[in-house]
Amino acid sequence: MCKVSKLWFVWLGYQGKLHLYFDGLHKKYGPIVRIGPNELSVVEATLIPQILGQQGMPKGPMWDARSFVPGRNMPSTPSLIGIRDVNVHAKFRKSWNRAFAPAVLKEHEESLVTRGTELVELLKGKILDSPDGVGHADISRCISQWSFDFMGDVAFGEDFGLMRTNDKDEHIHSLDEAQLLPALSQMVPWAKFFLGSIPSLTNRAKDFGKFASQQAQKRIAKTTGKKDLFYHLATNMDINDDQPPLPLVMSNSVLAIVAGSHTTSHVISNIIYYLLRQPEYLRRLQKELDITFPPSEQAVIQIDKLANLELLDAIINEVLRLQPPVPTYLQRAPPINSGGRLLNDLFIPEGTSVVVPPHAIHRDKRYFSPSPDQFWPERWYLHNETIVTDRSAFIPFSYGPANCVGRPLALLELRYITAILIYNFDFSFEEGYDPDQWDKDLFDRYVVIKGGLPPGSRLREKGRSNSFSDYLPTSNGLHEKHTLRSSLHFKPKPTTLVFSQEDLKRIWEWEVASGHYQSRRPFPNGSSPDIPLLNPGIPQDPIITTPHASRKQVRSTVGSGLRRTYVDMQSLPHNIGYPPRPVPGSIADLDIVMEQCDFGNNKYVRDCLEVLRIGAGLDRGRRIRRGNLDIWKYIYVEEGQRLTLPTPPKTPPKTISGITPKPSTSLEESLEPPLHLPPPRSYWTSSELATACDPDHPRIFHIFWGGPFTSHPYATILSFLFTQNLGLHLSPNETTASICRPQFWVWIQTGPAREANPKPGALKEMYDSLSSNPWSAPFLHPRFKDIIKFKLWNTTEQLDNIRELKDEWRSTNLFNSGGHVYEIPPDIDEKKTQFMNILKSRRDEDDLMNRIGSTSSSTYDRMRTILSDLARFVLCHRYGGIYLDADTIFLRDWEELWGWKGAFAYRWSRLPQYNTAVLKLNKGSALGTFLTRTALRHGLDFHPMTAITAYAEDAGLDNLLLRLPDALFDSPWLNTEGFQKDRPPSPPLTEFVHFFETPSAASSDAQSAGWKPWDPARNWPDLGSRFAEAERLGRLQAVDAARSSQQAESFSFITKAKARRALSKIIIEGEEEESVEDDKRDLDWATILKRTFESYIRGDSPNMYGEWIYW
């Protein structure tokens, strides 16, 4: 029958067990099965990108039958999920992308916590109302009510009240029943109108459409400042004039409710079910949560910490694998008039559809083994040659440009609701309940309709133990302990090595597989793996498959990524006054940069800078330089079709690179246990992401600051606003879905560096200080709230949230720099009162232990500098992003550096060691684990030159932490090497101090293009009338400073008397105006930059890309 008709599938759709039917077909007939006259089902992972991906096929004909009916007597209208035309879909998708942008998701977190708390209170009430202390409730129904209410918040700005009313109007039941009609009509779209005339199939759909229409009308009548989904769709949807906007907005809003509530409630209910089927995972997850959030009456589950919980994420992934919310029908078809599509060697004629069933491919033993049909979360974080976990076959949120736009929000929901339920309650099946009934009550209606789940619930005790004793993985999820041990091989005579060679090889494998090695640089000697590593970060290479290939030392990775197109960056006539913004998603090829800028090979800085400028289109060199400049192109975009290469040949385990273990030193005798790593990151190109921002590679700049805020971090933040693609030229109500806006996090330590915990009230003290400080107050303006974040540094909290450090850091000294340990006075915690009394008698500026910030070379806060060496690695490993010393100045957009997914650190060109004034690490990476654990074993020594350099080199991992030269980051040092002075760059700053006190010969060039003030004549914020109070406070501070003769000495460009006269004028706007005669004739470079940045904030000039700030 299937050869001639899809009517058989109508019957299967009515039964609701299509997912099981597809599983059986593929187990019997293989990965490609014909399921209808013109339809195939495919469970081949290598074909997924060609079917669903960016270069894949548009949606198939089933979507013609899945239209939303807003209500009786209203026409059907398309929603995002049902649009087949790829161009129209792309237009609709833009408004959805804006609605689920990271900044919007942060706004939804408050609603998530509110509704989650309501769910917890609902279950608590059932427990308290029960005479036996057990809450007898259908947890599946409660979760559905929660998800429905939360999606009401997301879509229409307020919940539907289902938890409060117990869904007395049966809206969830109506929605469930409404799924039957499209589940049947999608099989035979030609019968849509016939099936739609059957009242038993349509009444529930129309009832729900009426309910949705009422909610939309209610939302239209309501004035709210909340930017819910309805707001984004109504204001941003790109629609034609002949389409009625209200039904369009309604259909898409309802899509959010269906897709958002059904899917998350289905997955969370299944999480509870599987945890009850295998309660040892329930106990282990409770342990993990208890350790992260120690139980108390005031304990709060913090959303931002949940993404770091390994077992929680593994359980969620495993449930998504076994029970994907859309189990079968991801259908695509060749475009009309295309003639067909060739998928590898499989030709799909035009008019033939292809279905990718997630439920079947997720249970394919080729991609998930052992035991693909069993619940075993360990498969997501254990690594062994007997374990197969192929993430390319893991598609619970679909794949490609039509994937689930709400994926980031869904993951937030899954983590948070699972956490608060497991943290607060003990669950068990009700007596007499048959657990097998749960699977019987799951019905595939495109989305899954679930039945009831009646576990008993009890409140957990607040004083429970947070011991880690039984938080151990098992090999099969039931009984055995799983150990991954192999023979260990060591580098000869290591000085810092604490990991086995086998683990170092795994670190290389993890980083390469994650796309963090976008380079063709060879492996260092002694670090080569036994087999070629497929590298998605570089273009595809032919792979060596000869029998003897594996016997040779592997020297580099094998490209498996997309082709690189190097872009021609330049402003086009007649708009050459400003450089172009980088292409979103573009990447800097740092191999090419190093070829041009490796000053260790006597390259000249001025030549490097010219290549960097012209290759990025930052000046008009193209009009001066003649000839083909392709050799200077270093910025590329990834294009083409993702391919999966054959697995390289494997060899038996052997000593890496032929190194024989040497006699152990005392350090080697206590190597780290076998390394525990999460699964590698999935490598996504910018075109494959649902949003412009990659959640695995967040764009966060970090700085660490102690003491009063000064002009140095002020100038750093101004340069960030002046150069980075932040959308400040747009209305605050606008967003740009195609760009990923970086954030700037300022970590403030309010007390001395030795204080591991801020004192009570420190957060308020921090904000009071920031708001009253002229250099920081402007950045508290609401215009910057989404991009500049001030955060209170808490040493204890930070280290307790680093998995590799949390259990051991307290036994070390935090102030270890290059092997020199600064001892903190004993008993500081136990005898705090006595100690503070002692401090009062010795609290002077030269007291090393009590300095708060550096104000001069004589009062250098050495302790905080040592702590900042630790902080930069902790912050980047925990949150991801780039750490910057607080005197860094941005001189261009860093889009292309964010595109480089590998780690890097700044170095002084004249020295081979690291200088981590700029440091980029990937969040939770294998390299970060290596560095933090190694530093811990060496007394928490993170000194960049003596410690970090040795750690990386001894382990053969220094290529993973690329050392980038000064020219990219530190222009005041560019002329410190003797040979550079033969052909100096411009400006010729031969000493660091010349940046702040520029010689006249160099200062004229500046106008065309430590602790010193940036602008001695105007040493205050000069940001215009919006920040008049900050300017007034700054002027008063400058007056006080000028009255000190010691301070007046620093203004060497004019006489002391003139300095005092210029600064002692307390000028309040409108009373008196400065004279240009009070200014320095030859301005310093620091002054030029500060005033340029300030003019942009005032609105007097555009930024470096010709964009005017929009207030």
How would you characterize this protein structure?
This protein is an alpha/beta fold. The protein is about 35% helix and about 10% strand. The strands form 9 sheets. Strands 21-20-19-24-26-25-27 form a 7-stranded mixed beta sheet, sandwiched between helices. A 4-stranded mixed beta sheet has the order 1-2-7-4. Strands 3-13-10 form a 3-stranded antiparallel beta sheet. β22 and β23 (about 820) form a beta hairpin. α13 runs parallel beside α18. The longest helix has about 35 residues, at about 245-275. The model is unreliable at about 70-75, about 460-495, about 545-555, about 645-670, about 825-850, about 855-860, about 1005-1010 and about 1045-1070 (pLDDT under 50).
For the structure shown, list the relevant keywords.
36% helix; 4-stranded mixed sheet; alpha/beta; 1111 residues
Q: What layout of secondary structure does this protein have?
A:
Blueprint: H1 7-15, H2 18-29, E1 32-36, E2 39-42, H3 48-52, H4 86-99, H5 102-128, E3 135-136, H6 139-156, H7 162-165, H8 171-178, H9 180-185, H10 192-195, H11 199-221, H12 229-236, H13 245-277, H14 279-292, H15 303-306, H16 310-322, E4 330-332, E5 340-343, E6 346-349, E7 353-356, H17 358-361, E8 368-369, E9 388-389, H18 407-424, E10 425-429, H19 436-440, E11 443-445, E12 447-449, E13 455-459, H20 501-513, E14 534-539, E15 558-561, E16 563-566, E17 587-588, H21 590-597, H22 605-615, H23 621-624, E18 635-639, E19 700-706, H24 711-723, E20 743-749, H25 762-772, E21 788-792, H26 795-800, E22 816-817, E23 820-821, H27 832-842, H28 862-879, E24 881-884, H29 895-899, E25 903-906, E26 918-921, H30 926-937, H31 944-955, E27 961-964, H32 1000-1008, H33 1028-1042, H34 1045-1049, H35 1056-1063, H36 1085-1098
Parallel strand pairs: 2-7, 14-15, 19-20, 19-24, 20-21, 25-27
Antiparallel strand pairs: 1-2, 3-13, 4-7, 5-6, 8-9, 10-13, 11-12, 16-18, 17-18, 22-23, 24-26, 25-26
Binding site for heme: 404
Region (Disordered): 645-674
Pathway: Secondary metabolite biosynthesis
